[in-house]
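Team,

Forwarding the record for the chain on the shared tracking sheet. I've put the sequence and predicted structure together so nobody has to dig through attachments.
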Amino acid sequence: MFVFVNVSPVEVLVTPSIQLNNQQYVLKGLIYLGCEHFVCRVIDAQGKVWYNDGIETGRLCIEEGNFVNAV
């Protein structure tokens, strides 16, 4: 399931999961865009955060740390 929300220019607090209609949804990644390309951060099953910018890093994802520590 993908959810798209336009939050610009509002500051957003990101939480790792939400509960909707008795179903829990867990965040697995963020995609954001600007200047005609997008970058993303993906969260794996162990909570590691991986960063990718196709222009800057190509196919390489760079580990940034753990999601729990970033919140």
